[in-house]
Amino acid sequence: MAGWSAMAGMHDFVVPDEVAARALAEQLAEYGFSCVFARPHPHGGWLVMALDEGPYPVDTVGHRQFDAVNREAAAIARTYGGRPRSGSRFDISRIAEHRSWTAPIVARGTKARPPVPEVSIAPAPPLQPLALAPDFATPGIVELTGLDDVSWGDLEHAHGPADDIPGLLRELADGTEEWDEVLDELFGDDLLHQGDCYEATAPALPFLTQLIVADVVPARQRRDLYVWLMMAGGRRNDNLVAFADLALDEGEPLQPGAWTEEVYRTVGDQVPVLLQRWEAEPPGIRFVLAVLAAQHPGHGVRVADRIAALAAGLDGTQQGAYLRLAVELVQGRDADALALASKIIDWADRLEPKWLAAPGVPDGIKAAHVLAEGALYTIT
This protein's superkingdom (predicted)? Predict the structure, then answer.
């Protein structure tokens, strides 16, 4: 987006048939889109594409305005059996190129643009560096109990059989000098590739706990392990929030993607052991522990007072805001947690307001998703 002068875009929707496509195209043109195109979708139904000429500013406000218009257009599409697709955003210099598109159905609007809801962004609190000292780790090798008891070759990860997983875990346990690369291969490439969970993901997670509790892994690397546990456990909530609209549109029950529930439960099984380390771990790891605790409030409530104390010491910072949200979640005050999550989204420009409106998703899960996603951006 560097070099864009202003932003325009396309809002895409899929409807069941040509009749619905024609009616939706005409309705969206009446609503304010300059051009609306519709053509058969290669995977069934019809694709309806509305040109939004904006212009929108190329900043957080502009993107949130575009998203707000998309949500209003999606509500119109639902009345015709439609559901949103990803769409696109581009510099306004490409508007003429998109106006000249051809399609079996083309509807032209007469209004300047769709109504744009007012969007405001609050100033973000400062980030507070969190220490990873004192560090009590003593260098050594970790014996990963039970690693060979898992039939890894019978399990799958993102790239096929998981028989490479024990080797990667052993490299971490041996204190490899290529720690970051090995850990990224293990999770970024294999076990949580593109945010998905796999058959081998859950069985690998308890070995991260073994690495942590052995007290031979340095604090920065221990924090990496805690973070991957946090990210793995957060996939369930991410799925529920992301797929809520689709489940509603298709009349299907809301459920997470494959293996994510098992991964969530497995991470939850690790939390009680990890919370026993609260006093020993430095502040930079306690922060991640608090997020883990909030994802599993049944366990996390036992450290509610400690999370609150950490939040008080970080009052007025981004981490303090996330910790206050964690306190509400572990205490089971989900409505209050959602209200705090809404305030965070007002200034956290990488988070999505639409998460708060995910239909059929409990308040606690929406708030926990905001917490886990937002906390990642504070870890440096």
Answer: Bacteria
